[in-house]
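Each field is set out underneath.
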Amino acid sequence: MINNITLSGNLGHDPESRFYGEKNDQRLTTFSLAFRASKQQTGWIRVVCFDRLAEIAEQQLHRGARVVVMGALDQQYWEGSDGQQRNGFQLIARNLEFIRIEGRSSNGGSPDNDVPF
């Protein structure tokens, strides 16, 4: 079964990084991505980047930046603080394309100001 997903949207917050692994030398960076779920609804998904892609995301992205993320959809399960079983999805990024960072589009044009997210 193939698990590929491509979403474009805006970062909801600045990327957050941490290190993991036996030597605490592998980077993991996460951010929330707002995307248009329908004409009237915005969807949100957690994006997880590893290693070099995580470093690039941490250094180059910020809240509001517009990106295209390509990767795999991953379902997570956990127990909430109320003891109830919960689940949700996250996007494990394989590739990022920057559309607009620093308030300008990547093609040199002006930003699209009428996007709702």
